[in-house]
Write a structure and sequence with these properties.
The protein has about 190 residues and is mainly beta. Helices cover about 0% and strands about 60% of the residues. The protein has 2 domains: about 60 residues, no CATH class; about 120 residues, no CATH class. It has 1 helix and 7 strands; from the N terminus they run βββββαββ.
Length: about 190
């Protein structure tokens, strides 16, 4: 899904105005795409969003959302983690995921809870990769954690993401991990290779 971003209006000569649009310049008079939709062909200006502008999703959108459970433990300079759950992308694909990894830590903590996050992977299959992750958690009883991660699609396109976990645990720690996520598609895509 492409976020709404300001783009200059090229038809107005008095001054440039900004409009929140799907990265397409609009003409002031007709309120239609003056340059045509980036992925559209022919005179149909709404083909870019499959003829449904109010409900349309940018077909070249890059986003995944995930929700599941997470377990982690850090102490004596070592961090270990696992998470798993459901992942969806902006193309309507659904799948299950499992992430495991480990690395270096500062501090000592353990926790388990519910995790939610998002990434810029193009599909759920792009979410199933190797990542480098930085994060931390804190709490006594109620524990909260957050992390950010980076990796690459198969074609070399960068992927970034973040997640938050809320649950129970104890301690304070930060970590720098290498993780691997596997994805099994169950709706939309036939399989992730």
């Amino acid at each position: 899904m492409t976020l709404l971003t300001p783009a200059p209006c090229k038809k107005r000569k008095e001054r440039a105005t900004l409009r929140l649009i799907l990265r397409t310049p609009f003409g002031d008079i007709l309120s239609r795409c003056s340059s045509g939709p980036p992925a559209g062909k022919g005179p149909n200006l709404h083909s870019y969003v499959f003829n449904s502008p109010p409900n349309g999703i940018d077909p070249s959108g890059r986003s995944t959302l995930n929700m599941g459970g997470a377990i982690s433990a850090s102490c004596f300079g070592i961090d270990l983690q696992w998470s798993g759950g459901i992942v969806a992308d902006s193309h309507g694909n659904l799948g299950s995921y499992q992430t495991g990894g480990g690395g270096l830590s500062v501090g000592c903590t353990w926790s388990f809870g519910v995790t939610m996050g998002g990434s810029t992977a193009s599909t759920i299959c792009g979410f199933g990769k190797n990542f480098v992750e930085l994060g931390g958690s804190v709490g006594v009883g109620l524990n909260a954690g957050a992390s950010t991660y980076a990796g690459q699609e198969t074609d070399g396109t960068p992927i970034g993401g973040a997640s938050m976990t809320l649950g129970i645990g104890e301690g304070v720690a930060s970590h720098d991990d290498w993780t691997y996520t596997s994805v099994s598609a169950f709706y939309g895509r036939k399989a992730c290779s």
